[in-house]
């Protein structure tokens, strides 16, 4: 084989990074792969912007469809994003028997079944390392390195925008809107930040890695999703006082005949390694029955870190081509016939610890009314904290619970909200690794 010909569709930030890496590290990559990776075509509708690199004559074109339909090209790298044209191009490429690399988590989370079926129907490879966690090799870890493990759980910080915002609220005490505006100025957040800050981007990623970890179908609609836009500096400051920090986590747990799959702001102890993952970084811990606990850490976005993952995929596919072994690793880690109809546990069934902050009038009997309702629903209080002194305005009353069932906590909160001493909607934050489950009640 003389070389493997690559066509990149979409030359924005990541597409440009891939082109740069394939060009600048060409000799290095060839010395590892054994054949040359030829950057045959790069397509983008914007042919004017200076991308800071020179393409060989005839390489840069405006028509991505023509690149997909070029019989000389072996691997299509989809870097366009979105679910319209990108989907059409990927299916077109797969149906023509071409291998595909993509970073498009939203597309895979929504249309994975159709896209993976098209790839396996044609016996070609579809690689998507950069779709989850940017440079972190979580897909390869789940598909290959941990193949001997039963995966017990995964806990990830998978959105750099949210992590940056929460880190800024924690460090500088600024509010959510100020931190978001800073993230936008730094280029970490999109002009429309909804996908990121409301947790949907993290859910797309969780849907993909859950399928790989447990041999289930990609199941986005069943994932519980709650974003960070309601997190206040007060909650972060209180969390810190109790020895916790707040992170937007993707949480998944093997529950035997079901799987927990949820995305929400979560309090974790300061001793949890994920608490030190700050700014726009990503990290994920995976627990396996043989490996124990392990963690990956790195940039979840950005030109060259993401390009690093994409080029890793291109080389994997090229290696399979060289050894004539496309499909060597199952696309979704499991053999198709072994995929399980594993349900996601309904959110009201999950059991965890809770931080609940009420805005309550500081009057005699307030705590007993609240704790009475919690007690009626068998919710055991671990500690109670009141901030501020007696006044006619509400003060924050925080309760940390022992493990309780979500459905019971929700019922208790709606009953507590009916009390005339409660002002505003309470804030509920789930806790992931509460410091033991000490039955002693601490009133401070
Ligand atoms: N928008 C994502 C983030 C990066 O903020 O982490 C791409 O998945």
- Please identify which CATH superfamily of the largest domain we are dealing with: NAD(P)-binding Rossmann-like Domain
CATH topology of the largest domain: Rossmann fold
> Strand content of the residues, in percent?
25-35%
Radius of gyration: 24 Å
Number of spatially distinct domains? 3
Largest sheet: 12 strands, mixed
Average pLDDT number: 95
Helix share of residues?
Answer: 25-40%
List unreliable stretches of 5+ residues.
438-444
CATH A-level architecture of the largest domain: 3-Layer(aba) Sandwich
N- and C-termini, Cα separation? 72 Å
Shape, principal axes of CA atoms: elongated
Keywords:
single chain; 444 residues; binds L-homoserine; 3 domains; Rossmann fold; six-stranded parallel beta sheet; disordered C terminus; 14 helices; Alpha-Beta Plaits; twelve-stranded mixed beta sheet; Dihydrodipicolinate Reductase, domain 2; 18 strands; alpha/beta
Description:
With 444 residues, the protein is an alpha/beta fold. It has three domains: 4-135 and 303-338, Rossmann fold (3-Layer(aba) Sandwich), CATH 3.40.50.720; 144-297, Dihydrodipicolinate Reductase, domain 2, CATH 3.30.360.10; 347-431, Alpha-Beta Plaits (2-Layer Sandwich). It has 14 helices and 18 strands. It has helices at 13-24, 26-33, 64-69, 85-95, 105-122, 138-145, 160-172, 176-185, 194-197, 200-214, 233-241, 303-322, 366-376, 406-417, and strands at 3-9, 36-43, 60-61, 75-78, 99-102, 126-127, 151-157, 224-225, 244-254, 259-269, 281-288, 292-299, 351-360, 381-386, 395-401, 404-405, 422-431, 442-443. Strands 7, 8, 9, 10, 11, 12, 13, 14, 15, 16, 17 and 18 form a twelve-stranded mixed beta sheet that branches. It has a six-stranded parallel beta sheet with strand order 3-2-1-4-5-6, sandwiched between helices. Helix 4 links the parallel strand 4 and strand 5 (99-102). The chain is elongated and about 80 Å long. 45% of the residues are buried. The model is unreliable at 438-444 (pLDDT under 50). Bound molecules: L-homoserine (HSE). L-homoserine binds next to helix 7. L-homoserine binds at residues 159-161, 196, 201, 300-301.
